[in-house]
Amino acid sequence: MRRITLPIYLATALAVATPLAAQDDLRDILSGVARTMVTQELDKKAYAQAQGLNTAAAYRSYLEQYPQGAFAAQARTAVAALDAGANPPRAQPGSPQQTPPGRPSQAQASSASVESAIGLTRAQRVEIQQQLTSLGYPNGVADGLWGSNTRGSIKRWQTANKLSPTGYVTAQEVRLIQDQAGSKTAPTPGAAAAAEDRVEEGLLSLTANERREVQRQLTSLGYSTGGVDGVIGANTRRALSTWQRDEGLRASGYLTADQVRELRRQAG
Known about the structure:
With 268 residues, the chain is mostly helical. It has three domains: 2-83, no CATH class; 120-181, no CATH class; 191-267, no CATH class. It is 65% helix and 0% strand.
C-alpha cells in the first residue's frame, strides 16, 4: 500500500513548490508511475497465483493476461515443463520454494504419476491389497479403491523394506510384493487400465453434490467445465482429462479415488 500511495504523497508535496503551469505535467508523470507500480504488483500476484496452482492451464491464463509480463519467460518455461510431464518449482516470485498447505510435495506428485503409468487395473489393486494384508500390513476391505488405509499400508511395507515411504508403488515394488506374498500381479496395457478408471468412478457412487464439488474444483484450478450442475458431461470429461494430463496422470476423463482426494487438496 505504501508503494502505491507514495506517488500521491510526492505529488502533494511537489505541487506546493511547483509553478501552476508545470503542475499538470508533473501530475501526469506521477500518475503514470503509480499506474506502472500497480500493474507490476498485479503482474506479480497473477504469476504467484499461477505458481500456487502449478498447472499448465494456470500458467497459460497468466500469459493471456500478461503476454509481456515480468514473469512471461518463466511461465512459458513452466508450461513446456508441465506439457513434457515435469514439475516446475512452485515457489512464489522472490520467495523461497514452499509447498502450499494441503498440497502434496513434488516427490509425492511424481510418485503418483509413476504409479499411474504402471497401468494397474482394479482387480490387480485388490490383489495387491490382499498381498499386503497377508504380509502383515492390513488395509481394511480389499476393494481396489486405494484410500488412506491402503496408502498407509504401502508406506509401512516400504519402510520395512528400506524403500522410500511414498505410499505409491512402482513396477519394481509391485513385483517385490508379489514375490514376498508368493502370487503374481502383472501390469496391464494403458488402454485396459483406462477402462478400469470408468469402473472405479462408478464404484465411487459420487452424489450430485460431490459431482458439483468436482466441477467447482476443476473450474477453480483453471479447467472450465462449462457450468456446475452435477452432471458430468462432455465438457467436464474434457476438463478432467486436461487436468489429469497436466498432472502426469492417465488422461481417461474418469475419476479414481486418489484423484478425488487430489482435487480436494489442490482446490483447498
